[in-house]
Amino acid sequence: MRLTILLVMALTIQSLLFAQIPNNGINLTGMERTWDKPSFHSKAIISQLKELQRFGYTSVRLPLAVDYLLHTDQRFLRELRKVVRYTESQDLILILAYFDHQLAEDQLDLKVLKLQENWIAILKSLDGNLSNIYLELVNEPQLSPNTWHSVVPDLVESIRKVSPNIPLILGATNFNSLFELSRMKPWDLDRIIYTFHYYEPFLYTHQGTAWTGPQNSTKGIPYPFAAEAMPVLSPQARGTAGEINYRDYALTGNRIAMEDKIGQISQWAKQHQVVLWCTEFGVTVNSDPKSRQNYLLDLNQVLQNHGIPGFIWEWEGNFGVKELNLPLR
Predict the structure, then answer these.
(1) Is 160 exposed, middle or buried, given 0-12, 13-18 or 19+ CB atoms closer than 10 A?
(2) Nearest C-alpha neighbor of 288 from the set 232, 217, 208
(3) What is the domain range of residue 92?
(4) Rg (Cα) of the chain, in Å, rounded?
(5) Which of 77, 148, 138, 137 minimizes the C-alpha distance to 108?
(6) Does residue 67 have a pLDDT over 60?
(7) How big, in percent rounded to 5, are the helix, strand and coil portions of the chain?
(8) How many CA atoms lie within 13 A of 268 on its CB side?
(9) Number of alpha carbons in the 13 Å side-chain half-sphere of residue 219
(10) Mean of all residue pLDDT scores within the chain
(11) How far apart are CA 201 and CA 245, in angstroms?
C-alpha cells in the first residue's frame, strides 16, 4: 500500500511539472528536408498551423534542420520568433525537434559542441517566449547506447544555463527505439520527457518506400492481417528481413501486438516514474486508405489507454494524413 501511495505521489508531481499535457498531435514537416533546401517563412508556417487548428489539433511537433537553417537562412531566427509568438497566443503546444544533428562516434565532441551552440542560439533568440515550447534535443540519435547516455547530461546542462525550466524531450538510440528505451536507465535529470517512435510492424508501415530498400518492396499489405488479402511476397524481398517479417505478419499485424509493445514501454515509464510521449507514429500513403485508418485508430486508442500523448507523422508528405480526416484528437 505504501509503495502504491508513493507511486501516485510521484506521478502527481510529474503531472504538475508538465501541466500542459498535449492531446494527440501532429508533425508539421518540410523544414527538416535539407535535400529540398527549405527556407523558413513564418507566414507559410502560421498558415499551416491555422489549418491544423481547424482540424482540431492543439499540439504540433515541428521538425527542423536546425544547423542547415541557421547557416543558410539569415531570417530563420526572426521568422521562428514569429511562429513561437503565434503558438503562444493560441495556446498551441509546440515541440521544436532537431533533425540534422549529425551526431556520430567520430568527432563526437565537436558535433556535440555544435549541437549545444545551435540550441543556445535559438533559445537566446526566443528570449523567454517559451511558455508553450518543448525542445526535442536530438531526433533519432545514432550513437551507441553507452555513448548517448554519457553525452546527455552535459548537453542538458548547457541548455539549462540558458533556459533553466524549459521541458526537454529525449529518446533512446536506434531511431528512438522503444526497445532500446525499455533497456535504458533514465537520466538523473529533471523536467525530462522520454520519447519513442512507433512504426511497428515495419513491413506494413513502410511498405513500398524506396529509401528503406528491398525488404519493404512488398506492397498491398493490409491492416489488420487478413490471410485472404495478403499479397505475394515481392521477389526483391526474398533473403532480406522483409521475408521474415512477411512470414510473421499474422502475429504482428494486429492490435494485440501493438498493446504488447506499447504496454512494455508504458510499464517502464511507470516503474521509473517518468513522463512518456510518442513523438512519431504513422503509415506510408502506399498503404490503402482503409488499412491506414484501421492502423492509426488502433494505435491511437492503445496510446490513449496508456495515457501516452502521440504525434502523427505527418500532415502532408509520404505519410500524410490530411486527406484521411481521422478523429484522433
Answers:
(1) middle
(2) 208
(3) 2-201+263-312
(4) 20
(5) 148
(6) yes
(7) 50, 10, 40
(8) 21
(9) 10
(10) 92
(11) 8
Report the range of poorest mean pLDDT among 21-25, 67-71, 185-189.
Answer: 21-25
All cell numbers assigned to 274: 517518468
**DSSP H helices in the chain:** 2-17, 42-54, 66-72, 76-89, 108-126, 145-162, 173-176, 178-182, 202-205, 241-247, 249-252, 255-272, 289-305
Model confidence, pTM: 0.92
Q: Which residues contact 295 (CB under 8 A, 6 or more apart)?
A: 204, 205, 223, 283, 287
CATH number for the domain spanning 290: value is 3.20.20.80
CA dist., res. 135 & res. 154, Å (int) = 16
Exposed e or buried b per residue across 33-49, where buried means at least 16 C-beta atoms within 10 angstroms of its C-beta: eeeeebebbbeebbebb
How does pLDDT run across 200-249, given as a tens digit for each residue?
999 999 999 999 999 999 999 999 999 999 999 999 999 999 999 999 99
Instruction: Compute CA distances 71 → 65, 75, 76, 265, whole Å.
Output: 10, 10, 9, 38
For residue 302, the one-letter residue type is V
In a domain, 280, yes or no: yes
Closest CA to 261 of 329, 213, 320, 202: 202
Q: Is residue 308 assigned to a domain?
A: yes
**Number of CB atoms found within 10 A of residue 88's CB:** 15
Domains of the chain: total? 1
Does residue 142 sit within a domain? yes
Burial of residue 319, with CB atoms counted within 10 A of its CB: 0-12 exposed, 13-18 middle, 19 or more buried:
buried
Cell 499535457, residue? Answer: 21
Beta bridge partners of 161: none
Local confidence band at 5 (pLDDT 50, 70, 90 cut-offs) = very low
Q: 60 pairs with which residues across the strands?
A: 26, 94
Residue 131 located in a structural domain? yes
